[in-house]
Amino acid sequence: MDWTLTIDSASSSSTSASESLSASEVFHEEKVEEEEVEEEEESKITDIDALVEGSETEFDSSFTPFTLRWTYGRNVHVPFVNLTSENRKSIFYSAAHIGVLYDYEDKVMKFLQGHQNCITSIASDSSGKWIVTSDAGKDNVIIVWNCETCLPTCTIFDPHGEDGTTLVGMSPDATFLVSVSNSKDQIIACWKWTLGEKKPNGEFILPFQYGKIHRIVFCEDKNGDFMLTAESCVLFGIWEDDNLTVHIQEKPKSSKLINCKLCCSVYQNYSHYALTTTDTGHLLMWSDVPFSSVFNNEIPCNNNKTLLKTLVLDKESIEVIKAYKEIIITGNVSGELRFYDKMMKILYWVQSFQLCAITEINFHLWYEGSTDKLAKDGSCTISDRVDPFKPFYALEKAFERVLEKEKEKLAELRLLLKAAKKPEKSAQHPDEALIGDIIRDVLRDVEQWDVNETDKEELIQKIIKTAVDHVESKLSAALDHTEELIEGFLSSIFSEVDEDIPAKHSRDVAHAVMSEIMQSFDHKMDNNGENEIFVRDVLEEMIDTVSIVEEALEKEDVDDSKGLTELVVENVFQAIEEKFAIDTQKVVELIVRNLIKDFEKKESASQREIEQVEHEIEMGKHPKIFCRLKKIIEQRIEKNDELRIPSDATLERNPFVIGDFMISTVNGDIGLVNFINNTYTVILDKCVSPITALDCHVGKQQFAVGNASGSVILYNFIKTRTKVLETHLNSSEEEHGVTAVKFAPSGFFLACGLADGSFWILDSSVLNPLSKTPHVHVDAPITQICISDDSLWIAHKDTEMRVCLYRCEDPSGAEIEFMGKQKSHFKPIRDLMFMRSLEDELHLYSLGEDRMLVEYDLIHSEADDLKILLIERIEQSAIPYCMTVYPKFGVENFILVANSEYKFKIFNDDSRLCRKTALGPRFEKPVSKIVILPKRQEKSQCMVYACEKHIGIQMLPLDGNPYKSVGMIGHPVKITHMDVYPRSKLLFTVGEGDHAVLMWTINTRAVHIMAHIGGEGLDPYYCLIEGGQNGWLYKEIQDFFYYAQILHEGENTTTERNVSHEIPLCEVPDLMRAIGYFPSEHEIGNMLHEIQFWTYSDNGKPQKYVSFEDFVKLYLNHQPAFGTPFRKLQEAFEAFADDEDEEDGLIMYRETLISMLQERAECLSQEQVVKYLQVLLPSTQEPGESSSSSGSSEGSLWEFLPEDITYKAFVEDILGIRPPPKQKDAEKGKSKEKSDDIVTLVGDVVDTVLSAAEVSQEEILEEDEDKTEEEDECIDDFD
């Protein structure tokens, strides 16, 4: 089950002070934070019973073993979606099978989880509310998500069968979907998803000779029209009246275009054009009307278009093309952006970003959103596309948001106003007139004082400030009369200007008024972040305020508007620059964006509309400051070249300004382009090539990755969550990927292995090599590096089954000595590790697919002479996949091994004897990676494991309890690397071919809850027994268990029997065979040894008896996880077949079968072979008669066997096994009809055959996933 998870995490920027802390201080701070988190999590598990027994139906994350927290990288082959709008700064992209909604302003990720396969395509509607994702593979789906809630709204299962979906698109109004199948002949399907349709409403099949479809684009003006771009053709689709019509237009057959591939297509706005680019730099122009009518606004648009013209736009491949209003933007493989007008004439280009090939261009939603009106018939004309002009200023509404009530008053200045005499009411508002009169009188008195000019000016400013404070408080209480209040206040000041009052005070008063109002804006800006919407509102409010003041000053004939305007503009720039820490260029952009709106609309408006706008300006509906402010900005820009607005490439050099947009490159990075500033800001770091190595730092909150291009990248996963450092290790021209990385436990160095066998030691802080040249002692890719706990020994393995050993002079890794290499395995090495014994001696082990555990002699190894201490086979038939040091639960050290038969095996590190076999997780593939988690106080210790695609948590100690393991899909493909941050519950995973690292939070509480649900005793094991507790198998196990007690005491006895719950160890092998499990002699030895040492670590005594409960657990842990596959017997027969017949198939000679049973694997004696085969295949003579006759010849001994044995005869006649039925009747549950003796004999023969085949041709016995379920039926029915 997959859930939709939402991760909200605040970003925090690192400071230079924190970077200067010592390592111990940083570690201490991190440890304190981790302990607080652990205490918080432990407090949640105090009452599991209440949680389990509760009736809450809402989703509880406590049951989720892993919660996705962050992704580093993305699927570079899947385009991203720009969801940035006026109130949201987000993008949407995919990482593996996860959809990521990333708020790049607040640094928050939300995850859309619902796919089991890698996401192949994503799209959204024009509003950004709905998102659609698709995948290809087994159980593929198309999911429509609500972008606001991050929850799935509609899911279409297997939309194109097993082929899956390679491309999906959503109409601008989100009413229907268009999907393209991943089949050879691609199927184009339309879905009315809003009606819950499970089958496509329209389909069209594109023959494979046209190539793969790789782009979908919709017409913003007509929702039913869309265009698909294939390698050699363009498809114009029309979805109308629930009917799908597709017109195929092939590329021209000219010599220049015969070998080109089509790259991208777009509809040109306000025209009938559709444009397609090629990898040769050509542009194909499609239209449904002649060239003379392309821009005719009276002709309805039709999507049945043909080729009208071909142009050469570039010398290189044009990877992407986009339309913005009437401008066309292209991006090529050299990272160059070009801008064209509607006639495809070059207007502007950008080369300064130094990017690689551009793959995507996406404008913000408020630029791309269509506000055009559609005609009733669905057609769209050019005149309909012009937006009506809206007044730029809203004076009263804007000013109401500006003024704020001042809470503090200056007590000392109130004394100056207290003695003033209140005049009679004036025509204005009385309070404002009063304040004006008081200020006028005080100013007249101040001028007559005998004080220096500086003190006089300060006093005047204080008086003015007090007056303004009072006015602002009044304005806040009467916002309905803002304009009258300001006019009354100013007119009362300037109505009777005496000669005693210098004229300069008029400017002082006006400037002071604006300065005080600016302070209110400053206060507002202090409480807001860098919000573009807010800054724009502030600018508009400032302009509105100035226009009101100007009108009041003009009424009083005070000619100071120019100086006042300049003051306001300067204050605007200064305040925004200081409060938002942005440069003036950003401020200019925000102002110009508003100022040029009128200019842009004039260009596309009719002459009548232009005259109407000019008339409104002349009538005073637009303040005169509009023109003055524009001139001031232009003068300010002329003084600073960095603020200069770009101009186009025409002779007129007209200003060229477009909105911000985002681009992505072939390297995977996503960046924001600020056109006016000519800047490129990286939002998502590049992920050039697949990640091939991963490891976490043992102390710092960092992890390192290596990729296929030879780079090592260091990430910080807590504070900045971004790339910290990057270095390239390839010294030659040929690039070799980094195949292994490993941090030293000391934290001082990072060891790196490359695909060419070179071995580097880097400084972990700066990623600089500690030596000028790498250590090269092998010529094959290094696949794993391990370092001892004291950081003094380093070992690595490669694909040629070699192990190399190095010794460090000190933990810093500055000087290392090569100790030699050994090719100790004849099959690939699966794992390598250091381990300390009880005597604190260091050991180095390697584990291979040859089933060998090799220990190396570190004590006696010298320079360039690595010695092997011992080689021991630890598996008989299974292939070991991984190993680790098992936690100490007693006085012994153990090695934990996971194998291909879904088993965990625990070996004593000294004797190498198997002390425990436990059933592991039973996903599609067995466990291939394991990491032991640190023990958390009194909780049961856990470990994290990875199968092919799944990740999970296993509770320790291992006992085969299926409820002590929980897992989920971690990656859509094979998990190649997995590591745990040792100081926190964080898991990092990488999948095969992935460009992204997934960071998960480990929730061990989930496995504790599941273990509690499973119960105690045999309760959690009943689900592993066919039929459960009341089934036939469980009852049969009980019967045979107590019958084994009778057999042990003797069947023919009259004494009173002592029936107990235990049986002696000697009865275990036969009891196992009686209930249908036929272990080999090696497996029997493991079982008996396991029983004997169950309690050895506790009391030091071997155990001689086994209880019924322990026997059931022993049986379930040792029997094959999915039974014995029928195909395994067939493969064993094929390994020894001598001949092949056209009718009977493979044939084995009688002599071959006899020699195999007597000489291979766990061989049988001649007497045993004769006894078993005569019971299985009775002859006319008594069993054993021929064998006891001294005169019988060797040939007559085997006369009852046919000379040529076919596979059918071997299975049905000799072994007596019926072929697997097509359907199994689970309700019958009858026991086997053959006697127990015959069952035991069959088991011995089958086991010997299988074991012999494994020894001779082990490679034939590898599991084949493509076999049908019918072939996987167990061998459990006998004739």
From TrEMBL:
Entry annotated with the keyword Repeat: yes
Region called Disordered, residue ranges: 1-41, 1253-1279
Sequence ranges of Acidic residues compositional bias: 32-41, 1256-1279
Protein name (record): Cilia- and flagella-associated protein 251
Biological source species: Gryllus longicercus
Subcellular location: Cell projection, Cilium
An annotated GO cellular component: motile cilium
Principal location listed in the UniProt entry: other
